[in-house]
Amino acid sequence: DISSLQVQRALFDRIDREWGCLDLAVANAGVIQHRPLQELSDEELLQSIGTNVTGSFFFVREALERFEKQRRGHLVSISSSVVTKPYPQAEVYSATKAATYQLINSLQER
């Protein structure tokens, strides 16, 4: 469950233990609901935000912490074309992917 900080920390801790470093991290999580916002249940909305935004932000943060300690590493973030051309009937997906896209753009400005 990528939206769980505990799960993510356990994953990255395992990488630290078993390999000692992290050279490359690929952020590629995404959940899409093919229905308008007003038709999504609370659970579906929270799942989309949890996976596409919260989970991606946790993942990127955990990877960057290791890269900074190591003074090296590469992050690849796979987003979606919906950040520039919204997908009809998938407003939540478009908005959440735009959030992760802007996170990566902001990080590039460092």
Order of helices and strands: HEHEH
Count every beta strand, where a strand is a DSSP E run of 2 or more residues.
2
**Tally of helical segments:** 3
Q: End-to-end distance, in Å?
A: 29 Å
Structural class assignment: mainly alpha
Helix content: 55-70%
* Content of β-strand: 5-15%
Largest sheet: 2 strands, parallel
Shape label: globular
Q: Major sheet: order of its strands?
A: 1-2
**Backbone CA Rg:** 15 Å
| Low-pLDDT runs | none
Average predicted confidence as pLDDT: 94
Can you walk through the features of this model?
- The protein is mainly alpha-helical and 110 residues long.
- The chain is 56% helix and 7% strand.
- It has 3 helices and 2 strands; from the N terminus they run H-E-H-E-H.
- It has a two-stranded parallel ribbon with strand order 1-2.
- Helix 1 packs parallel to helix 2 and helix 2 runs parallel beside helix 3.
- The longest helix is centred in the middle third of the chain and has 29 residues, at 42-70.
- The radius of gyration is 15 Å and the shape is globular.
Question: What is the topology?
Answer:
Blueprint: H1 5-19, E1 24-27, H2 42-70, E2 74-77, H3 91-108
Parallel strand pairs: 1-2
